[in-house]
Amino acid sequence: MNTKTWTPRAAEIERRWFVIDAEGQTLGRLATKVASTLMGKGKPTFADHLDSGDFVIVINSAKLVVTGDRLLSKKYHSHSGQPGGYRMEVLGDLLKRKPNEAIRRAVKGMLPKTKLGNAQIRKLKVYADADHPHAPQKPEPLA
Q1: What CA–CA distances, in Å, run from 89 to 27, 74, 86, 115, 116?
Q2: Taking Cα atoms as reference points, which of 140, 141, 64 lies closest to residue 104?
Q3: Mind listing the pLDDT tens digit of every residue in the chain (143 residues)?
Q4: Does 97 map to a domain?
Q5: 51 with 119: CB under 8 angstroms?
Q6: Interatomic CA distance for residues 103 and 25, integer angstroms
Q7: Residue 48 lies inside a defined structural domain of this protein
Q8: The domain that contains 53 carries what CATH number?
Q9: Which candidate in 33, 54, 62, 142 could, as Cys together with 99 as Cys, close a disulfide (CB 3.0–4.6 Å)?
Q10: 48 to each of 54, 86, 116, how far by Cα in Å?
């Protein structure tokens, strides 16, 4: 009987590139698919303490769909630490100003809140239109 636990080494991890078209897709459902791919949960070599995920390119982020009244009710808060430094922005305004940031924030909220999560979010590339500079990596469409 083998009682040893196998864990992948950093040199054994293979990273692939995937592309997702966000046109007509719901923000939250797209974000869960992207976060799962960034973490590497679909791989048989998944280990929660290693960054074993793949690179993800999201195109057409300006054409994604938000259901319900979230365009007005979903709020993003920040505070600079200075007096009067509180900023609040609703999702509708953020999508008009920076559609890439809305997807990035939704995915970042689904990743671990550690150094590992910071390494995983760096593998996310988001573009507002269909053009992206990652053609040499030969990205595959993510199902």
Answers
A1: 17, 9, 10, 27, 28
A2: 64
A3: 788 888 888 888 999 999 999 999 999 999 999 999 999 999 988 988 999 999 999 999 999 999 999 999 999 999 999 999 999 999 999 999 999 999 999 999 999 999 999 999 999 999 999 999 999 999 999 98
A4: yes
A5: yes
A6: 11
A7: yes
A8: 3.90.1180.10
A9: 62
A10: 14, 35, 9
CA–CA dist 74, 90 (Å, integer): 6
Backbone angles phi, psi at 30, to 5 degrees: -65, -40
Reading the block at residue 114, the tokens are 């550690």
Q: Which pLDDT value is given to residue 2? A: 80
Q: In 3-state terms, what secondary structure has residue 110?
A: coil
Which domain does 130 fall in, by range?
Answer: 15-141
Number of structural domains, the chain? 1
Instruction: Tell me if 10 is assigned to some domain.
Output: no
* 20 residue type, one letter: I
Collapsing DSSP to helix, strand or coil, 20 comes out as: strand
Token digits of residue 115: 């150094």
In a domain, 62, yes or no: yes
Place of tokens 């007096």: 83
Q: Exposed/middle/buried for 58, CB within 10 Å: 0-12, 13-18, 19+?
A: buried
